[in-house]
C-alpha cells in the first residue's frame, strides 16, 4: 500500500503553497500548526479546517473546489514524481498486489497513474474521500486492503508523514517510513516502524521480511 504525497510524488510542499496562497486570497490567517494538522486529512476535512480554523471566507465545498482546481492545474504540467518511484512500484507489483491509499482527491490520483503509465499496474487506488475519514484514521488503508482482497495484517504500507504512519499502524499493517525531509515525522511514531533511507530500499526490505511473517 503506497501513500502518494511525499512517497511517490514530491507534492507536500505544493499542497502547502497552494493552500496558503488560496487562504490568503480569501481572508484566512495561517496558524503555525496548520500545515502539519492537514497532512493526511481527507478533502472534506481539510476544506472544513481551512474555513473554521484558518478563516477562509468561503464554504468548505467552494474551498475544496478552488484548491483542488489549482492543484490539478499544476499536475497538468506533469506530476512531481519522485526519482525512482515508478520503478519501485513496478518492482513491488511484480511480486505483490499493490494499491495506492492516499489523502489526495481521486482526480489527482488518476492524473498520477495516467502520467506514469501505472494505471494497469496499480489495480486499486483509494482516496480517503472514498473511505469516510482521513489519516490518522485507518479507514483508507482498510478499504484498500478490502478492495485488494488481502488481510491488513499481511500487508505493508509506505508512508512519509506522522498522520500517515499512524493510520497504517492503526490498520495493523507492517509499516515502512520514508521520512519527508521538509516535514519530518514524529520520532515517537518512527520508533514503531521500519525507517528506510530511501524508497529504493523498499523491495529489498520486503524480500527480507515479507509482511505478516
UniProtKB/TrEMBL annotation:
InterPro entries from the entry?
A: HAD-like_sf (IPR036412), HAD-SF_hydro_IA (IPR006439), HAD_sf (IPR023214), PGP-like_dom2 (IPR023198)
The source's superkingdom equals Bacteria
Q: List, in alphabetical order, the Gene Ontology terms for molecular function in this entry.
A: hydrolase activity
- Identify the Pfam families for this entry: Hydrolase
Q: Which UniProt keywords apply?
A: Hydrolase
Q: Which PANTHER family match?
A: 2-DEOXYGLUCOSE-6-PHOSPHATE PHOSPHATASE 2, PSEUDOURIDINE-5'-PHOSPHATASE
In its UniProt entry, what is this protein called?
HAD superfamily hydrolase (TIGR01509 family)
- Species per Swiss-Prot/TrEMBL record: Saccharothrix carnea
Amino acid at each position: 500500500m503506497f501513500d502518494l504525497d511525499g512517497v511517490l510524488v514530491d507534492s507536500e510542499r505544493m499542497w502547502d503553497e497552494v493552500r496558503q496562497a488560496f487562504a490568503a486570497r480569501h481572508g484566512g490567517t495561517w496558524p503555525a500548526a496548520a500545515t502539519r494538522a492537514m497532512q493526511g486529512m481527507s478533502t472534506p476535512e481539510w476544506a472544513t479546517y481551512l474555513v473554521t480554523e484558518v478563516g477562509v471566507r468561503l464554504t468548505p465545498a467552494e474551498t475544496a473546489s478552488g484548491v483542488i482546481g489549482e492543484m490539478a492545474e499544476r499536475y497538468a504540467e506533469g506530476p512531481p514524481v519522485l526519482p525512482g518511484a515508478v520503478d519501485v512500484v513496478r518492482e513491488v507489483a511484480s511480486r505483490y498486489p499493490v494499491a495506492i491509499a492516499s489523502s489526495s482527491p481521486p482526480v489527482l490520483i488518476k492524473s498520477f497513474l495516467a502520467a506514469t503509465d501505472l494505471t494497469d499496474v496499480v489495480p486499486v487506488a483509494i482516496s480517503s474521500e472514498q473511505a469516510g475519514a482521513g489519516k490518522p484514521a485507518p479507514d483508507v488503508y482498510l478499504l484498500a486492503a478490502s478492495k485488494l482482497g488481502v488481510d491488513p495484517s499481511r500487508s505493508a504500507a509506505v508512508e512519509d508523514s506522522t498522520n500517515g504512519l499512524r493510520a497504517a499502524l492503526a490498520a495493523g499493517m507492517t509499516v515502512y517510513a520514508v521520512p519527508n525531509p521538509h516535514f519530518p515525522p514524529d520520532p515517537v511514531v518512527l520508533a514503531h516502524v521500519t525507517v528506510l533511507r530511501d524508497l529504493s530500499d523498499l523491495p529489498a526490505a520486503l524480500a527480507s521480511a515479507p509482511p505478516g511473517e
